[in-house]
Specification:
Elements: H1 2-11, E1 31-35, H2 38-41, H3 54-61, H4 77-91, E2 95-99, H5 102-105, H6 117-132, E3 136-142, H7 148-154, H8 160-178, E4 184-189, H9 191-199, H10 219-241, H11 243-246, E5 249-255, E6 258-261, H12 267-290, H13 296-302, H14 311-320, E7 327-330, E8 334-339, E9 353-356, H15 378-392, E10 396-400, H16 413-417, H17 420-438, E11 444-450, E12 469-471, E13 478-480, H18 482-494
Parallel strand pairs: 1-2, 1-11, 2-3, 3-4, 4-5, 5-7, 6-8, 7-10, 10-11
Antiparallel strand pairs: 8-9, 12-13
Helix pairs in contact: 1-18, 4-6, 8-10, 9-10, 10-12, 10-14, 15-17, 17-18
Bound molecules: 4-nitrophenyl beta-D-glucopyranoside.
Length: 505
């Protein structure tokens, strides 16, 4: 039955007509799962003693910044959790990546502030239910929901020392209460987005920029610096006091596009593409995974805007790198990079690069999805896996990948469930992983689809739908989309080393 279902999905028409999914093999021990984040799905925003985060504040204080929408209820996962675990179990996932709302555990956030046992009980229940159906929990400690009181007390990430002390206390609380069952930890989700979108453009919480009381020239770099130091302190605490008995691993998740040169014949554009990736991945990856200063291209352009590491800090970062680490990669798309002819603007954060969807020959990087920035470009994904592997030599876990289908937000449920575009996107991106593994020798350990279900897409509100599961935000009814069954089947086939490959063609 599944094969027929599967074939009809793969052969159906879609706007990705020129692409063919080959259903290439993946290693037998490759793991797959789904991912979510607390604020995007939980709801229960003020339930059972939860404190206010910067997202509760951001979405309520100026609703126009989030399409007039907030996530007080969202998917109401807080009150539908057992059903959501059953859903995942029916998809056959190996792992589930979710984040813990800091303000559910410590409503005011700080190291002297009281712990809310009701919040701890919720995550204990979730973890127990996952374990009981053989799904391994993967926990993100910070997915963008800073306690509002820490933002108000000392500026949150802008105060490296205070933030680090409070983050380590929160992390230790999580390790000690959940670490007997949680064996994979992620400190921060996407420090790049936290820094640039939260403190340069201000389109995400806390919404700071030069135009709104901040300083876009310096604050993003201070925030990034704080995240690197807090990450090192938390991993150090884990390695010293928890890892010996709990035997888990811990790392960070970095996001970023791959960049192709706008004009392959232009040396300046080729250098721009590499520099753009230094500014994206090297910003965090070089200090954290190599124990080195920020990339030379960043120092050269940003000079004093970029904080300095002391020798002790770099040595601490190096020493705090835990064994059995991994590189957590969130990846969605590829762009063209074009060198700007003028010197950089004084608040440039890109490496003085223009980003484009079309190259000098007029060729588009790939078909556009339901969001304009997200185009389908699996070759760039394969190239990025190799780029990251060559630079850091760490096993890669793809911690997020997925897309909204074109027009999905205005379709009927019947149309939504038949999500051919997403099926093909997943198929092509999994083929790219296979090529990276078998053709390029990259170690990739797992793949977590974003997302388990449609959810609150930050400043875009409930418009874009990334889910394997449709959520009706009025009735809260969950309906699996075809892509959920496709992934289930595809992983079964691919992990058999392609034994069934021919039968699909
Ligand atoms: C990630 N970009 O964010 C986040 O981790 C998720 O919470 C989010 O829902 C998902 O991707 C889909 O957007 C990103 O503009 C947001 O390049 C924006 C970008 C990249 C990642």
């Amino acid at each position: 039955m599944f094969k027929a279902e599967h074939d009809s999905i793969l052969n159906s028409r879609s706007t990705l007509g020129d692409f063919k999914v080959q259903e290439l093999p993946l290693p037998p021990d490759f793991v797959w799962g789904t991912a979510t984040a607390a604020y995007q799905i939980e709801g229960g925003a003020f339930q059972d003693g939860k404190g206010k985060s910067i997202w509760d504040n951001f979405s309520h204080s100026v609703p126009s910044r989030t399409n007039g929408e907030h996530a007080d209820v969202a998917c109401d996962h807080y009150n539908h959790m057992p059903q959501d675990v059953d859903l995942m179990s029916s998809y056959g996932v190996d792992v589930y990546r979710f984040s813990i709302a800091w303000t559910r555990l410590i409503p005011l956030g700080g190291r002297e502030d009281p712990v809310n046992e009701t919040g701890i009980a919720f995550y204990n229940d979730l973890i127990d239910r996952l374990v009981s159906v053989n799904i391994k929990p993967v926990v993100t400690l910070y997915h963008w929901d800073l306690p509002q009181s820490l933002h108000e007390r000392y500026g949150g990430f802008l105060n490296s020392e205070e933030f680090q002390a409070d983050f380590v206390r929160f992390s230790r609380l999580c390790f000690s209460r959940f670490g007997d069952r949680v064996k994979k930890w992620i400190t921060f989700n996407e420090p790049y987005i936290i820094s640039v979108f939260g403190y340069h453009s201000g389109v995400l919480a806390p919404g700071r920029s030069t135009l709104s009381g901040g300083d876009s020239k310096t604050e993003p770099w201070r925030v990034g610096h704080s995240i690197i130091l807090a990450h090192a302190a938390a991993t150090h605490a884990y390695a010293l006091d928890f890892q010996p008995s709990q035997k888990g691993s811990i790392s960070i998740v970095l996001n970023g596009h791959y960049y192709e040169p706008y004009d392959t014949h232009s040396e300046a554009d080729r250098a721009a593409a590499q520099r753009r990736m230094d500014f994206y991945f090297g910003w965090f990856g070089d200090p954290i995974f190599l124990g080195k200063d920020y990339p030379p291209a960043m120092r050269a352009q940003l000079a004093d805007r970029l904080p300095q590491f002391t020798a002790e800090e770099l040595s601490f970062i190096r020493r705090s790198a835990p064994t059995n680490s991994f590189y957590g990669m969130n990846h969605y798309t590829t762009k063209y990079a074009r060198a700007l002819p003028e010197p950089p603007a004084d608040d440039d954060w890109t490496g003085n690069v223009e980003e484009l969807p079309t190259n000098s020959e007029g060729t588009e990087i790939g078909p556009v999805s339901g969001m304009s920035w997200l185009r389908v470009a699996p070759k760039g994904f394969q190239s990025l896996l190799k780029w990251v592997w060559d630079r850091y030599h760490l096993p890669i876990v793809v911690t997020e990948n997925g897309c909204p289908c074109p027009g999905e937000s205005t379709m009927s449920l019947e149309q939504v469930v038949n999500d051919e575009f997403r099926v093909k996107y997943f198929g092509l991106y999994l083929d790219a992983i296979s090529r990276a593994v078998y053709d390029d020798g990259v170690t990739v350990e797992g793949y977590y689809a974003w997302s388990l279900m449609d959810n609150y897409e930050w400043s875009a509100g409930y418009g874009p739908r990334f889910g394997l599961t449709h959520v009706d935000y009025t009735t809260l009814v969950r309906t699996p989309k075809n892509s959920a069954f496709y992934l289930k089947q595809s992983f079964q086939r691919r992990r058999k080393d392609g034994l069934d490959k021919e039968s699909l063609e």
